[in-house]
Write a structure and sequence with these properties.
The chain is built from 14 helices and 15 strands. The longest helix is centred in the middle third of the chain and has 23 residues.
Amino acid sequence: MCIVRFVAEGVGPFERLDLDLSDGRGNPHLGPHVLAGVNGSGKSTALRAIAWSLATSGHRFDFVRWTHLLSAKNSYACTLVKTHEPFICAASSHRRSLAGWVKEQLGGDWQGDANPVQHPLHRPMSREAEFYYARLGRQPPDPNSEDPFFCAAYAPTKALQYLPHPDMGKAQTNPYANALGFETTCDNESLQAWFLNLFSRGAIAARRGEPAEKYDNLLSSFQTALEDIFAEHVTLDVSLDSPVLQPLVKLRGSQLNLSQIPDGIRGVLGWLGDFLNRREMASHDQRRQPVPSVLLIDELDAHLHPRWQRQILPAIQKALPGVQIIVATHSPFIISSCREAKVHVLQVSSGKAQALPPVDAPFGYSVNATLKDIFDVNSQFDLKTERDLDEWDALKRRDTIGKLSPTDKKRLQQLTTELSERSEELKFVVGLPPRLSESVLGVLGEGKNGGKQAKTRRPARQIRHG
């Protein structure tokens, strides 16, 4: 149970952004929620606006850079969260009564006997910004207490690198510290300390005859998620040959240190390990009960092969049950990979962006259909081939009704020949039969000894539009 709705105004390309993250019955939908759109449509901005509304000084959110994305004098962001009770996290670039603000922007979703309570959590260096935390029907929480839910945000990073002397004393101790830094959320030293501590604590517990299930289960779920994403045996290990313990990754028969693994694996290993670590600590703080959690990932497809892009979203969902997942991507493979996903298409018109109502993911649809319906990419060919096909199509239509000049007929024949020589697929598109092998011709009775060659033409450009 996490974010139900997010509203912002005057942020980046948005005059107003309204994201419905509910299940239609007033409860959060865990998603995954996928933000999709062209460059400049505000996918990354939307994720960072959510983080802005949740961030305090300890989350390492980049408030200074963020102020340049506040496009209005009265910019604000407001997140309606529901765990065991509803509450609101909000951020504003101006001073304003939060009670009136909530009533104005989320009044239809906000029900109860008491008004929200205004409570400043953080005042950044800029005088223009004020940050608020509101809850319904109770006093505001102690600023030093833990949040009633946990959120972490990530962007593509190559933070994981080989360390000559990993220090297990550098492990993360506060799950909320630096959790909304995006590019800086993953810390190389603390993450490697966590890897090593998982192995060493489990081994010590087993040696003492104490339960090691906690460490074994966490390590197992981590490794299973990696194998589900990359569809090959990816194993975490520790080197005992070097003077100090070193985390290793076993991949394709090799033992690799963290500077030697592929960037796609490095990125996933970083944010997934960091999130698992933080969530486990947050749950421990909440008396070992699973804490309501939100995972924000920008450019989920970064550095990933298309085969891995197809697998990553279902694998995350499986590895992180009960976690609300919100990601931004350009990948049609990711968008169409998960049955339960909701797609939020962001569009740009006259320089302003807006979010369309969420739709079910195109699960079971082809990548070409997703490209067309979600990204408005109508061709599966390169730009030059697309231009040549458009010209060929126009000439072919005129030729069909007998309105083609000799010069145009020559051009049509030239284009037909050029396109058919580029690929077997284009031979079908322009209506020429593909070249069949001698064995196939023999089976059809049309080889060297038999019959006339059959005509196997298809309607012009059938594949291109189908």
